[in-house]
Amino acid sequence: MTGEGPAVSLAAVTKRFGDLEAVRALDLEINRGEFFSIIGPSGCGKTTTLRMIAGFEQPTEGTIHVGGRDVTRVRPYRRSVNTVFQSYALFPHLDVWENIAFGLREARRPRDEIASRVADAIKLVRLEGREHARPNQLSGGQQQRVALARALVNQPDVLLLDEPLGALDLKLRAELQTQLKDLHRAVGVTFCYVTHDQGEAFSMSDRVAVMNNGVLEQVGAPEEIYRRPRTAFVADFVGAANRLQGRIREADGPGRYIAEIDGIGSRRVGGPDGLRVGTSVLIVVRPEELTVRAEGFRASVVDVAFLGAQRTVRLHSTSIGDLVATTPGAIDAPGRGSELFLDFDDGQAWAVPA
Amino acid sequence: MNIRRHPLSAALSAVVIAFLWLPLVAVIIGSFDRNALLTTFTGATGHWYDQAVHDPNVRSGFETTLIIAVCSMLLSLVVALSGALWWRRAPRRARAIYDALVYARIVVPEVVFATALFFLFLKVHFALGIPAIIVGHAVLNSAYSTLIIQARLIGTDPALEEAAADLGATPWRVFRRVTLATLMPAIIAAGLLAFTFSLDDVVTSYFLQGTAQSPLPIVLLGMIRFRITPEINAVGVFVMVLTVALMSGAVGVLAGAGRVGRGNRSRRRSRLLGLYQG
User: Fold this and answer.
1) ipTM greater than 0.95, yes or no?
2) Can you give the pLDDT at residue B5?
3) N or C: which end of chain A has fewer CB within 10 A?
4) Is the Cβ pair B169, A91 closer than 8 Å?
5) DSSP designation for A351
6) How many Å apart are CA A47 and CA A225, to the nearest integer?
7) Does residue A57 sit in the same domain as residue A149?
8) Residues 146-175 (B) with a CB less than 8 A from some CB of A
9) Do A54 and B160 make contact, defined as CB atoms within 8 angstroms?
10) What is the pTM of this model?
């Protein structure tokens, strides 16, 4: 890749389909060599964003740079970007070898270079011996690996992946997640991964962008997004959360506040910078932060679910409402209907604008 | 009572099959009959085939038929392929209108189209003759070709073309290496079908031939009017063999094509084969 700066950068990109605004004023930078994911519910604009980077869609407004080059109006076949499609889109009339060689043939590489690069790619995705199989003779996981090899063999600046694990069963997905991560480390190409599955994105990515309704809600490392969501939507989307009503009573240093929480009282909480005193907020408490104590607020157990390493306990408190807590699976489960005290540590709760 | 097992059902089936196949059997036997009057079978001979091959009328009729069949097949394919490719990205209403026009060409009796084309060509001063027959056949047969190519197109993942562009193929290369390549079985089948339909057409050819050399089916029609000879039977057998070979070629290509591509294979295949049964 030539030039300096980010691998991909989108500036004020808006995409409209008729009256529908699929992506609105999106600013985004993807660093070189990182594993970047875009997550969000279906229809949030993540796939449209990916398609604009690939060149299948043209932004209505704004500019897109790949590897420092302005590609806003550049056709897909002139971009150093390759895509792994959700349906894999393997060419049914070509065998594995020809599928992988497709891009190199289009680039008119010498015959022996094609042969050696295709052989390397086949080795990389461990499909030795299947060179002459047709795509319909392969399993879903194998097809997925052909799609990966077909894209990576061209040594693109950026590899785009559109829900590439969506069509596979759960066990295979987990396996391929690990393989994808290893592959990313091995080839050093920038990966841009789109999925609606936040767990998948968190487990693989260096950074994650959360989109909703065409708007970028937050970008950051998985842990940052999980622990310090900037909006109520992000807090909700990236994992189970208890949402308590409250308002900011006073600021307590940068990103620190004292909040008045309904039914609980005054507590120290974290939150994004710039929340004003008096603002209504949602206080997010993750289930694993809510623990059984000798004292705290009283709640009764509605249901207990055993999940192996941990239990999920659903509770009801007359003063606060429904709550979710997790306890280690190793200790005895509280009985259904039993009353207990719950609390969370100071500073473990997080405030977002309501 | 089980209708399927009733002896009358079996008898009826036998009668139906006899009606379908006996004429063909009669033609085959007749083509070998030593008796030129075909009154009683008096022994086998290959003489009539020899005579048919050397009959100048039959020869020129067959040549005309081949020219018409090849040209109208190519024209049908161009119309069907470009139409189907447009249809794939067309707005919903336009697609519905296009579909209606395709089905109309199949459903409306051929004689209606033949008459209409006859008057149209007179009006625009397009000379009747072989080019007119070619156009006439293409108008009708392109409908069948369209259905076959459309069926294949529906079963093809639209992401294939994006994938090719993504891998650096220019629009022309995408068309050649992916669009045409994945459609090829359907194109071959559609071509064979159009060719066969053109081969045995009488109605449209009759209306549009003008004073030009008649294609083979019309030559045969003329010969029958004069006198029924074993030679006509021999020509009939020859055309029959050619048609069966072409049709089984088309079915074979389509059935083989069911193995490639995404989508519900068996559904697509039965839809395509349904064309021949229906």
Assistant:
1) no
2) 77
3) C
4) no
5) E
6) 20
7) yes
8) 157, 159-160, 162-170, 173
9) no
10) 0.79
